[in-house]
Design a protein that fits this description.
The strands form twelve sheets. Strands 3, 4, 5, 6 and 7 form a five-stranded antiparallel sheet that branches. The protein has a five-stranded antiparallel sheet with strand order 30-36-33-34-32. The chain has 803 residues and is an alpha+beta fold. One of its GO terms (biological process) is response to other organism.
């Protein structure tokens, strides 16, 4: 009896691959004949269903943009339409794309122009979408010539079997199906391994989980009862997950390598089970690893989250990426990209006294970056640990373990950050002192009531001369106290409650040496270089607003508050303002590199790769203003003069004083024409409501200038069409002559694919009809290559939309 049981235990794993394919022949299915095709469009049949209707194969509209489609397989009978497989590397296609089972038995995906994007199989007689979720191409004698189960993406389903050499790739995000930062690989040696990988190269970093079955693993089986296990060559079985919760007739099931790097098994209750403890949603019943924050400790790469961030596990056992104090996300929509400091790095040339006045520490318990230390000091006291890190310009943080008095100094960028109760160290994060609570403002307070009695007695009883001297002394004391109070204000002390400093006109006059050094940007009113009389002698750009704002003073203050609360890598930081009588000034951080226009239209130009990053930076800054800051801000004058560059040529949008706030209850506003000729959207002159799309138009013009290094208007050119940049580039694009756009720039000629994409995005942005222009969110997606760029219509036409 025991030998029979052992024999069956050995035999079942070997038979499972055959059993998993059996439905290809035995179950009922709807044949998809040769020559049958589907077209991507909304409102029409765009899928082939399995016999029960449980699964669908075809064009699945993206969650973020229903004008784009993924060739995919999904659960059809549940509200979420969860995708379990996708073709073409997860790249979406647009309206009019087609998938066809060709006459020669090949499954073929073509874009809207008829260009082949992806193909599978050959010599098939028909195709079928099975009730297992497997899409098959069937050849002669009922043989399977291709099946989706053999080329999984990020998900496996019950009855699916994986063999050595198979991989699962996590998505980049929940809604971006391109390959992300994690990979599950069934190694050829039989070991099952989870890796972190570099994006976009796919280079594997160190594994963070392994089945430890080197030489033994033969199959990874997801059986129909919901059990996932590793069948080993010696006949034994190792559970991969223990998430079997009931028979298939009660639950839909799947197992997915999620975009956060955790392999989770999910169940979804069928209609009869949607009561009691089961919600109408996918529920995770098991995961590998259980805590990815602890599991990942790669010597290279950033870890579970991006650089300068740290990983925590929320109550749903999902990964949260967070920034340490005085750091912010590079991209709030993609927190895995990591965090950047919101302050200038410590100078290695500063003396100790200056460093102590500029930097301090924020404490966080249970936080560590275990692989970022470059020096350990022990035994040592915590105060000395702080001093050692503070005096070291390479040290951005330190961790201190009170038990063994161990001090570890951390270098930038911080990697593999994690926070949890299992960490018994204290992190000391170096931050500028301005982020700490400002010292109390010194005030002159006369505490003793009798003091006033004494002064009054002197005034009444003394001689006239003494009275005059006493009055003068009191006035001088009051004036001195007032001046001392004014100069003691820190940048975080502000009547607006935004962290902005309210300057007096006299302070700005002194800081700019009576406005003597004018900068080559700033527009109307001008901008002046200044130096504040603070401990750091901070350089600033003082922008005179003057009469640029015809709106009420209330709107000016509201705009100041909105700008003061805005914080983004690609925005020039506003430090303060002056609103004294008729004098209005904005005080910005000073960027010595200057405006973008100085590096586009002169003999010294930015390299192509730098220009690409500048364009992406402007787009991300505008996206933040339009959609991510507390109050939507329309800039109204995007152009190279208003884009400043820092020392690393990072683009920062400036000159917000022309901006317009858009409240939540407003879709558009009516206002006087603002902006600069050549960059102004047509609706300014058409008595139409103004929306954020005016900035999209200006960005499109600026993007063409960045590509071509040519001004939008060149009246010296004889050809009228060539004189206006948008018209000329449009003609070159439609005639297939983008080589004329880039001229003799060899660096650009090696990147014509990106040039074509950027030009197409720009032409979408400069459409005359505002509704045809994409949002800045869509613009950033298309520029990054995360979304397909459709062929833009002629900018003067109104024929289609990619909204």
């Amino acid at each position: 009896m025991a030998s029979s049981s052992l024999f069956l235990q050995f035999l079942v794993p070997l038979l499972l691959p055959l059993l998993s394919i059996t439905p290809s022949y035995a179950q009922s299915h709807r044949d998809i004949s040769l020559g049958t095709s589907l077209i991507s469009t909304l409102g029409q049949n765009t899928s082939w269903l399995s016999p029960s209707g449980e699964f669908a194969f075809g064009f699945h509209p993206l969650e973020t943009d229903r004008s784009l489609f993924l060739l995919a397989i999904w659960f059809e009978k549940i509200a979420q339409k969860t995708v379990v497989w996708y073709a073409n590397g997860g790249k979406p296609v647009q309206y009019g794309s087609m998938v066809e089972l060709t006459a020669d038995g090949q499954l073929l995906l073509k874009d809207h122009n008829g260009q082949e994007l992806w193909n599978a199989g050959k010599n098939a007689s028909y195709a079928a979408m099975l009730d297992t979720g497997n899409f098959v191409l069937v050849g002669t004698h009922a043989s399977v010539v291709w099946q989706s189960f053999d080329t999984p993406t990020d998900t496996i389903l019950p009855s699916q079997v994986l063999h050595p050499g198979t991989e699962l790739h996590a998505r980049l995000t929940a809604t971006n199906y391109s390959s992300g930062r994690f990979e599950l690989r069934f190694e050829d040696d039989g070991n099952l391994v989870l890796y972190t990988v570099a994006v976009p190269s796919g280079n594997q970093y160190d594994p963070y989980w392994t089945s430890d079955t080197i030489g033994n693993g033969s199959q990874l089986v997801f059986n129909e009862s919901g059990r996932i296990y590793l069948a080993e060559k010696n006949g034994s079985i190792s559970n991969f997950t223990s998430g079997s919760i009931g028979p298939m007739e009660d639950f839909y099931q799947r197992a997915t390598l999620d975009f956060d790097g955790v392999f989770r098994q999910y169940v979804y209750p069928r209609k009869g089970m949607r009561s009691g403890s089961w919600n109408d949603d996918w529920t995770s019943v098991d995961a590998k690893p259980t805590d990815i924050c602890q599991a990942i400790a790669a010597k290279t790469g950033s870890g579970a989250c991006g650089y300068n961030s740290y990983c925590t596990i929320d109550e749903r056992q999902h990964v949260d990426c967070e920034c340490p104090p005085s750091y912010s996300f590079f991209d709030p929509n993609r927190t895995y990209k990591g965090c950047m400091p919101d302050f200038a790095a410590q100078s290695c040339d500063a003396d100790a006294k200056e460093i102590e006045s500029l930097y301090g520490f924020k404490e966080m318990i249970g936080l560590d970056w275990p692989l970022s230390d470059y020096e350990q000091l022990y035994p040592i006291e915590e105060d000395q640990c702080r001093k050692e890190c503070l005096s070291d310009c390479f040290c951005v943080a330190a961790t201190y373990n009170i038990n063994d008095r161990n001090c570890s100094k951390m270098k930038a960028p911080l990697s593999n950050g994690k926070k949890g109760s299992y960490i018994h160290t204290k992190s000391l994060i170096k931050v500028p002192r301005s982020t700490q609570s400002p010292p109390p403002i010194p005030t002159v307070v006369i505490k003793d009531k009798n003091s006033w009695t004494g002064i009054r007695s002197l005034l009444l009883g003394g001689s006239a001369l003494i009275n005059i001297l006493l009055i003068a002394a009191v006035l001088l004391l009051a004036f001195y106290s007032y001046k001392k109070r004014i100069y003691s204000l820190q940048p975080n002390s502000s009547e607006t409650g935004t962290g902005l400093r309210s300057f007096t006109y006299r302070e700005l006059q002194e800081a700019t040496n009576n406005f003597s050094e004018q900068l080559d940007y700033g527009g109307l009113g001008g901008a002046y270089k200044g130096c504040l009389r603070d401990e750091a002698s901070t350089f600033v750009a003082v922008k005179r607003v003057g009469d640029l704002l015809p709106d009420s003073e209330v709107e000016f203050i509201n705009l100041i508050k909105a700008i003061g609360q805005a914080s983004h890598k690609n925005l020039v930081r506003l430090l303060g303002f002056c609103n004294e009588g008729t004098e209005r000034f904005l005080v910005y951080e000073f960027l010595s590199t200057g405006p973008l226009k100085s590096f586009l239209f002169r003999s010294i130009r930015l390299k192509w790769n730098q220009r690409v990053q500048v364009a992406l930076g402007i787009a991300r800054g505008l996206l933040y203003l339009h959609e991510e800051c507390g109050t939507q801000i329309i800039h109204c004058d995007i152009q190279p003069r208003n884009i400043l560059l820092d020392d690393n040529f990072v683009a920062k949008i400036s000159n917000f004083e022309l901006g317009k706030l858009l409240r939540e209850d407003q879709a558009r506003v009516t206002m006087a024409v603002r902006g600069t000729v050549g960059y102004i959207a047509p609706e300014w002159f058409q008595n139409m409501g103004i929306t954020a799309k005016v900035d999209v138009y200006s960005f499109g013009v600026t993007l063409l200038e960045i590509i071509c290094c040519r001004k939008v208007l060149e009246p010296v050119l004889e050809n009228d069409e060539a004189a206006r940049l948008t018209d000329w580039v449009n003609i070159c694009y439609r005639n297939g002559r983008l080589d004329m756009v880039v001229g003799g720039d060899e660096e650009v000629r090696f990147d014509m694919g990106r040039v074509e994409r950027f030009v197409a995005v720009a032409l979408w942005c400069v459409q005359e009809e505002p509704s045809l222009r994409p949002t800045m969110w869509k613009v950033t997606q298309m520029l990054d290559g995360a979304a397909t760029v459709p062929v833009p219509p002629d900018p003067s036409s109104y024929i289609s939309s990619i909204q």
